[in-house]
Amino acid sequence: MTTPQDCPLTQQAVGWALHALEPDEEMAVLLHLPQCAACRAAVHDAEQVLAGLGGSVDAAEPPTGMRDRLMARVADTPQRPPTLLPRPTEPAPAEVRSTEPARRHRLDAEEAAASAPTARRSWLSRRGRRLVAASLSVVAAVSLGGLIVRNAQLEQLREAESAQSQGLSELIEQLDRPGSRHAVLTDPGGAALAAVLVTDTGRQVYPLGLPANSAEQVYVAWGLNDGADPVPLGTFDVAPADQGARAVGSAPQADEFTSYAISIESGRTAPASPTRVVASGEVAA
């Protein structure tokens, strides 16, 4: 087991206990804590210090009459409305005044040309305006639809992240309780996808990073021992915004397993042996 000085994330773990991290940093610490007893010890120590500091200062009542004195002082302070200065008027530039007759003449010529009988040009103008209006309507509809879809996707992402954070917090609270055992299950690349927690009351699977499965598939938890066939412990589903614990199997048999695995299977029942294992891990000593 590592000591707090051996883990580079100990300071971030303390920051998580103090609620001083950014959301992405909090999630990184939450994923790390199940795998690191040293950081969990640092979190425990920080929480103990906070609890001691909170109880070391006596609650103090404000002096009698403080509110009355404060309100009297506010009433005696003169309240002056802001002074609004008139906006200065600027004279028109000389060059603008000098070009006014020429501009007026040009506008008169343009109006005369516009009033000439040009039926074909007027028809094209009306048709052009309709096409422009229709094009703008289509662009506005597409843009609005894209914004609605994007907002819905962001909302689903926030719900999934919130559910995952809540599930991790529940898991961390249970890890170091007397009599509990756990295994962090990772994919071949080392990413933590799930955790198995075994206590005297049952066995639970926490899907930390497992993607949601379809209605035609199901996840299966397996118990493993060296030299023995995998034992199917139970099936469970994962929804995007539901990352809470899943009870699988019974607790007494769990004490015999040295590691666990999770597979994704077609259908809704557990096969005799795993088809495609997505995560596995040994029980922490």
Descriptive account of the structure:
With about 280 residues, the protein is of the alpha+beta class. Among the domains are: about 5-50, no CATH class; about 180-280, Sandwich (Immunoglobulin-like), CATH 2.60.40. Helices cover about 45% and strands about 15% of the residues. It contains 8 helices and 8 strands; from the N terminus they run αααααααββββββαββ. The strands form 2 sheets. A 4-stranded antiparallel sheet has the order 1-2-3-6. A 4-stranded antiparallel sheet has the order 5-4-7-8, with no helix packed on it. A hairpin with a 5-residue loop joins strand 1 (about 180-185) and strand 2 (about 190-200). Helix 1 (about 10-15) runs parallel beside helix 3. The longest helix is centred in the middle third of the chain and has 57 residues, at about 120-175. It starts with 9 loop residues before the first helix and ends with a strand. The model is unreliable at about 120-125 (pLDDT under 50).
Q: TL;DR of this structure?
A:
By secondary structure, the chain is α+β, with helices and mostly antiparallel strands. The protein is built from 8 helices and 8 strands, in the order αααααααββββββαββ.
Layout: helices, strands, pairs:
Blueprint: H1 10-17, H2 23-32, H3 37-56, H4 66-76, H5 94-98, H6 100-114, H7 119-175, E1 181-186, E2 192-199, E3 202-206, E4 217-224, E5 231-236, E6 246-247, H8 251-254, E7 259-266, E8 277-282
Antiparallel strand pairs: 1-2, 2-3, 3-6, 4-5, 4-7, 7-8
Helix pairs in contact: 1-3
